[in-house]
Amino acid sequence: MIGWIEGIQKAIDYIEENLTEEMDIQDIAAKACVSAFHFQRIFYILCGFTVGEYIRNRRLSIAAEELSKSDAKVIDVAIKYGYDSPDSFTRAFTKFHGISPSAAKLKGAKLKSFARIRIKLTLEGGTMPEYKIVEKAQFTVMGKVRTFDIETSYDEVPKFWKEHMESGDNKIVCGMYGICMDNDGKKFDYLIADNYLPWNEVPEGYVTRVIPAGTWAVFPCRGPLPKSIQDVNTRIWSEWLPSCKEYKLAGNYNIEMYTPPQGNPEDYYCEIWVPVERI
After folding, report:
1. How many CB atoms lie within 10 A of CB 232?
2. Which of 26, 58, 63, 94 has its CA 20 to 30 A from that of 83?
């Protein structure tokens, strides 16, 4: 547990030490000893904002301090904190602080502060999320795929589901699975998919993907969507993973498994599958 939290904190410390430098998500995630794919998902769930948002907000917060407390020129501060031009810096700064960089230099200017994060884990009670460890053989899925940026995926993936269901494509793929598969650490492929039946043709616009054989931690979710699955997801990363001494994260993908609606949303059942391996 201590090692896990220390790893996340080391990644945050690395960010803080390099706010004036160009950073790569792969290097940041390496400090936490997890993949960029998993790190960004965990970071968002624990903190409520993306890694990119954290970096931008910290840079703009510190930039404001420099402008208000020194004779630094706006263009110099803009370049120092990674902006290509004073105009792009001014737009970002004004959106964050509500005033321009020039106005920030005036006495009494009101500026927003975005504090450095320090991770602390508090486990309440003696329970952990319900789960089971399952060995699954390799299987193939078929579905619609779209590539998402980690930064905007939490808004865009639900739109993808809505579009799929309203277009009538759910008659071809009902959506048994929602599958995240790492693309390049900054983007990932998301599939709305069903089990692939090899004797059927793959319709135009659809793809197949092979899910490797392996060990999965399977977490049941009960109740109305999306709250039930969001609550369990949060508990996986904030309670189960830090406390688990037998398993660590494995492949750069995870699966949401959905069952057909049963009428009463309060009785709805689905699962989150997380690939793991023994420590």
Report:
1. 21
2. 26
Tell me the per-residue pLDDT of 110-140, one tens digit each, with 9 for 90 and over.
Answer: 999 999 988 776 555 556 789 999 999 999 9
What is the CB neighbour count within 10 angstroms for residue 63? 28
Residue 192, domain member (yes or no) = yes
| Count of domains for the chain | 2
How do beta strands 207-211 and 253-258 pair? Answer: unpaired
Q: What CATH number is associated with residue 247?
A: 3.20.80.10
Q: Is residue 146 one of the residues assigned to a domain?
A: yes
Q: Residue 88 sits in which domain range?
A: 2-104
Q: Which of 178, 240, 238 is nearest to 209 (CA)?
A: 178
- Listing DSSP states for 154-173 in one string gives HHHHHHHHHHHHHHTGGGT-
Span 36-62, average pLDDT: 90
Cα angle: 122, vertex 155, 51; to 5 degrees: 50
